[in-house]
Amino acid sequence: MKYKKVLLKLSGEAFLGKRQYGIDPHFLMDIAEEIAAIKKKNPLQIAVVIGGGNIFRGLSAAENGMNRVTADYMGMMATIMNALAFQDALEQVGVQSRVQTSFEIREVAEPFILRRALRHLQKDRIVIFAGGTGNPYFTTDTAAVLRAVEIGADIILKATKVDGVYDKDPMKHADAKMYKKISYKDVLQKELKVMDSTAISLSKDNNLPLQVFNLNKKGNMAKVLSGNEIGTVIR
After folding, report:
1. How far apart are CA 96 and CA 90, in angstroms?
2. Listed residue (111, 194, 203, 205) closest to 158, CA to CA
3. pLDDT, tens digit, 9 for 90 and up, residues 178-199
4. 230 and 42 Cβ atoms separated by less than 8 Å
5. Could you count the other beta carbons within 10 Å of the beta carbon of residue 188?
6. Which of 23, 55, 172, 219 has CB atoms 3.0–4.6 Å from 78's, for a disulfide?
């Protein structure tokens, strides 16, 4: 294996699957089965951070008049709902997992404690970090980088609905060109919308590489977890 410990960043929108809203259980099971297949073959430690955009997006609500702090906390709670759904899918395919939240909801998950998270990873459990950073005004991308740095991950694997990082939106521009490799500096200077600037800067400061790949292509999850540099690598 190329990596010993990775952090997988999943967007909330990915959980829509073929639905317009909410969570597609069949799509979650497909992801869980791919991860289970990798875990059976390789001693890879995996942590996960999930967005909440399929249920509630705080920034969009704030732009439409809701108080930003209130909206962001609602978005954080949406990530916890996604984390519990993903935990259920993983355990249905025989993969032990734990959900840790940035603020306490003890009835459904553990509070985030770094030493406990590291112990879970050592015991071959997947740890799902939910609730973002626990603070408004910070995205789940920033939460993913923060947790990755804390646990000492080798890389962040960011799953998206496109093949990688492009010079412009490939959904709107047919002539958009994809980068195979790009530096943190270029991502910031070109203002590429792969992650927010706080997340990219934190990755740069800690020399933490990122890999962006298409989650919707069958087998991609297994490929990136095995160390294949598909999509775009940022370092």
Report:
1. 7
2. 194
3. 999 999 999 999 999 889 999 9
4. no
5. 13
6. 55
